[in-house]
Design the sequence.
DNA sequence: GCCGTTTTCGGCCCGACTGTTTTCAGTCG
């Protein structure tokens, strides 16, 4: 039984309890489910090692839920859950995916019409049966049908890297409106989560109506879920939903904090507020209960204009959005010990770029020019090697020829008259970087060698020794038993010619799981061999992922953020890699390509 | 059902919008 499956059981119990209007227990079960989901160990192992006591250590899990976990691990069933299922045997997860249908309506639909799943819900709505239920009407029925159509079409979450470009476009359009005094993107986009459920825009304005009207009539909008005086939500043609919220200036900090989330982070903040005799909502932080949009009669609004005010009033350092997941950041902020995160402008070069020597789009010179215009000081060309025929992998001879070309280009890029990079890279606008000149731009030659099934590489050591650096990655035989795969990668880590392991866990978000590996052993080996692990910025990779990055930092392993670009159009993906590094609590010193080239190369194996 | 630097009992985060009501429940974020 996987942790996620067990968590799902408790989430569903929470839903069933909500249907019965049981107070407080639903939240307790939800909390336990969150606690289980957040575990980085298999719950089976935790139970094996420490029994019931160890289970009760899990946040949100007490005696009663620990016993239910035990029951589930032993028998594969939870009686308490099955009793609910017997009473209401419906596919809750499926039905409540439909916008506007929650647990209460799901219950009614089953009791009145016997609806158990999405297909039956659709059939009933088409026959016009839904409107016959008390409390349901024609409009609800129509909305349910539309909701089902959307559920069928969409998978739910969207890759950060896919969603960002259209979101930035819409952001620009909204920003241009004269009524908009200030605008931010909040929500999981601001937190730079690897996948995004929906997009939240937050705006300051004294005149919300024209903004909301403009928002719902954007050409990207295909469905208006709701439209009120100060907020609205819509579906875009790209498939994702967007919310907009307009607030007055004095509430902006509180609103930005509130709508950035995460939900778990905010709940803790509100509790801290209550402990201090304060009240926190999206309108501000108030000195006494009863605060509201108009300001309660007895409560006084404390400074809420910016987020720092809110955090300060709660006795906390301002917390970067990427950390707001209630994973220890609040405790760190209380102790004034938050990390100073690697910045979006700190990267000095990208060492994982493919060129037209293989199947990638651009020549080395084109890549170098693009890198210069992004403000980089160096770029690393790392084409695939010969095992990957489909990518026209390079052999020993071609690598030598490529080295000659790079030598010539490097001579060309030494420009003693150029000004040094005047400002740090504004990564958030990487799509349109400023032109700037670099005194000494350097092209490094690497390669991305293939880690074969036995852990050896597909190219001769002598050839590797002539390169500036070597990346090695797994590109075949993904499905090996855990022990073998771990050994395979560790052998590559120990290879005296290998400097960097690319996309170390091999996952493709929403497509392919990580390889079966013992990640702790990989980390220990990387630490011992001083081999660097890559944070791959490609939108569907983001590998290492945030939680693994944090583990790697704890293991004192060095990391590098690369894009794995096969075209210069992908160089700006760097932003996503940096964001994951930040989510993994990395500081500048943890990331080697924040260093100038001479210092960077000290982290490579002696050649 | 869980949890505790005021507590082992008595608390549990909060407000906008919609649709169906005639004063509010359900849903969502």
Sequence:
């Amino acid at each position: 039984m996987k942790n996620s499956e067990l968590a799902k059981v408790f989430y569903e119990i929470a839903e069933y309890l909500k249907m019965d209007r049981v107070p407080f227990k639903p939240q307790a079960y939800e909390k336990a489910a969150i606690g289980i989901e957040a575990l980085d160990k298999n719950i089976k192992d935790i139970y094996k090692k420490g029994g019931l006591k160890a289970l009760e250590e899990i946040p949100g899990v007490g005696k009663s839920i620990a016993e239910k976990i035990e029951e589930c691990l032993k028998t594969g069933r939870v009686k308490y859950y099955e009793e609910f299922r017997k009473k209401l045997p419906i596919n809750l997860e499926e039905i409540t995916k439909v916008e506007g249908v929650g647990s209460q309506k799901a219950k009614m639909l089953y009791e009145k019409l016997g609806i158990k799943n999405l297909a039956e819900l659709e059939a009933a709505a088409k026959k016009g049966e839904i409107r016959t239920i008390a409390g349901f009407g024609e409009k609800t029925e129509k909305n349910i049908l539309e909701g089902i159509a959307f559920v069928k079409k969409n998978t739910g979450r969207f890759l950060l890297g896919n969603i960002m470009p259209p979101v930035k476009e819409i952001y620009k359009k909204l920003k241009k409106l004269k009524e908009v005094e200030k605008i931010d993107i909040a929500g999981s986009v601001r937190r730079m989560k690897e996948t995004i459920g929906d997009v939240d825009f937050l705006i300051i304005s004294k005149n919300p109506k024209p903004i909301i009207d403009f928002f719902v009539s954007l050409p990207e909008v295909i469905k208006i879920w709701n439209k009120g005086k100060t907020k609205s939500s819509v579906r875009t043609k790209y498939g994702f939903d967007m919310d907009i919220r307009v607030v007055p200036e004095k509430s902006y900090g509180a609103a930005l904090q509130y709508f950035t989330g995460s939900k778990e982070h905010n709940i803790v903040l509100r509790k801290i507020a209550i402990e201090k005799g304060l009240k926190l909502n999206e309108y501000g932080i108030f000195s006494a209960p009863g605060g509201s949009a108009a300001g309660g009669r007895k409560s006084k609004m404390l400074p809420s204009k910016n987020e720092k005010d809110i955090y300060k009033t709660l006795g906390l350092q301002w917390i970067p959005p990427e950390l707001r997941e209630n994973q220890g950041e609040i405790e760190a902020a209380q102790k004034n010990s938050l990390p100073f995160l690697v910045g979006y402008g700190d990267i000095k070069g990208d060492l994982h770029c493919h060129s037209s020597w293989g199947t990638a789009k651009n020549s080395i010179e084109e890549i170098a020019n693009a890198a210069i215009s992004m403000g980089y000081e160096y770029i690393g060309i790392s084409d695939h090697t010969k095992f990957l025929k489909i990518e026209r992998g390079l052999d020993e001879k071609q690598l030598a020829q490529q080295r000659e070309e790079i030598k010539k280009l490097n001579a060309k890029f030494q420009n003693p008259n150029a000004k040094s990079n005047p400002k740090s890279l504004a990564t958030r606008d990487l799509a349109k970087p400023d032109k700037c000149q670099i005194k000494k731009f350097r092209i490094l030659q690497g390669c991305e060698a293939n880690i074969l099934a036995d852990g050896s590489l597909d190219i001769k050591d002598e050839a590797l020794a002539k390169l500036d650096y070597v990346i090695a990655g797994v590109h075949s035989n993904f499905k090996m038993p855990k022990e073998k795969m771990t050994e395979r990668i560790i052998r590559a880590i120990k290879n005296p010619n290998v400097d960097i392991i690319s996309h170390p866990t091999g996952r493709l978000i929403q497509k392919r799981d990580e390889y079966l590996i013992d990640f702790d052993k990989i980390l220990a080996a990387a630490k011992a061999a001083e081999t660097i692990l890559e944070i791959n910025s490609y939108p569907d990779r983001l590998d290492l992922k945030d939680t693994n990055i944090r583990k790697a930092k704890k293991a004192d392993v060095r990391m590098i953020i690369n894009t794995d670009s096969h075209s210069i159009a992908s160089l700006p993906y760097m932003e996503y890699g940096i964001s994951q590094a930040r989510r993994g609590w990395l500081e500048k010193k943890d990331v080697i390509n924040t260093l100038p080239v001479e210092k960077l190369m000290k982290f490579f194996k002696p050649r």
